Amino acid sequence: MDWFEGRSLYQLTSQGVYYIFNRYFVERGNLVEYEPVIGLEVHAQLLTRSKIFCGCSTVFGEEPNTQTCPVCTGQPGSLPVVNRKAVEFAIKLGLATSCRISPSSLFARKNYFYPDLPKGYQISMYEYPLAEHGFVEIMLEGQRKRIHIIRIHMEEDAGKLKHGETPETASFSYVDFNRTGVPLVEIVSGPDIRSPQEAGDYLRKLRAILQYLEICTGDMEKGTFRCDANVSVRPKGQMEFGTRAELKNMNSFRHVEKALEYEIKRQIAMLEDGEKVVQETRLWDVAQGITISMRGKEEAHDYRYFPDPDLVPLRVEEKWVEEIRKSLPELPDGKKERFVRQYQIPEYDADILTSAKAMGVYYEECVRLFPEPKTVSNWMMGELLRELKHDEREIDQCPVTPQHLAEMLSMMKEGTISGKIAKDVFEEMYRTGERPERIVRDKGWVQILDEGKIEEAIEKAIEANPKQAEDYRKGKEKLFGFFVGEVMKQTKGKANPKLVNELLKKKLKG
Ligand SMILES: [Zn+2]
User: Fold this and answer.
1) Residue 297: which pLDDT band, with cuts at 50, 70 and 90?
2) Distance, CA 67 to ligand 1 centroid (Å)?
3) Confidence (pLDDT) at 181
4) Separation of 302 CA from ligand 1 center, angstroms?
5) Measured in angstroms, how far is the CA atom of residue 362 from the centroid of ligand 1?
């Protein structure tokens, strides 16, 4: 090991953490590349009206502890009964991710103590999950990549702890059991993910599927879609996995990606220092942008799982599964293929346009009003998504409606506005939510098609630059672009470019 060269790749930061500048280190003169191995566990809250084992309401944001009963608060003698709708939703997800639906699955007790868990155990599934062996496809450098779904199982959510925030309540903690017993599905991916970006793509795809199915809102900030990540690193080419850490507390896609990036660098730095990565649970600290050790990782046997004696095995008839299969709506991959076929747009475009249900709806509405699919796609993937990303907004919060975008594209096509002005109009529509027609009128941005006016501007441009005009006539043709620019300056970018070209050629020669 050449220590000097090895060390030069990273440094000690103020937090005492090694920061690595790239993924390589030098060993006996060879570059060794590390590879991260990532698996994700997603908890998604199912949109049923009542809880998973009782009739209590699941409505969010009500007064604390008003939506509870003896079952979900674990009173002696009460008995759980499984919610058929929750099972149906879980089967929908299983089918949508190409899983095998198990004809017989089993609820089990996962035993642990926490103040938000009144029964002292959580009802989950262990050896016999509802669905297994599926996959979700993501696009990786233009190719499709399958991320395997090991299992999908059903479980109940826990309550919520609230710690006193005012000086008077600072020494108190409160518990709200309204969320206790809200149905969840846990989706466990295989260790197939190889970068933080892939992790983000997989999560977005999975959320899109849940939203297309209308079984989960997919809101990470509100906690209806939560993600834990198992991450380890190994030298590229090595078969066996490294020791993994579990990351928690990431409540946006960006945080998942950032936490993984940080953790990968941290683990590589440890290995390079000859240290061992410890198996543990780590919390993502948003403020500091680092992961912090929370506790040693517990193993499944620590929970003393056993079949819940209050619940019979969950038997799912094949007939019912087939009925559910037939009722499935068009899903992201199906819609993507249809967009490619129907609108003749590249798969890349179609992938992005179907990445959220609302995005596909927006696109199709816009194309219906302005039937040039590729133009619409270009504007959505360019201007529209750039603005939304900048503001961290979703498409259904976009101030520009499909009607307004279509109207603007029509104005551009008819020559009322130039392509250059169209970008300004779009920005203004996004800022104000106004109709493009009104913006163009108020700002005086109508394109100049009047040949007289354009000729006037050309004459001015030539008059102001006699030397360049003469050089052009002598054969310096590159100067043509210069004159186009001058004319555009004169007309504040409103002159029709085609007319400018035609007339300018004539005038410069004459
Ligand atoms: Zn209840």
Assistant:
1) low
2) 7
3) 97
4) 28
5) 39
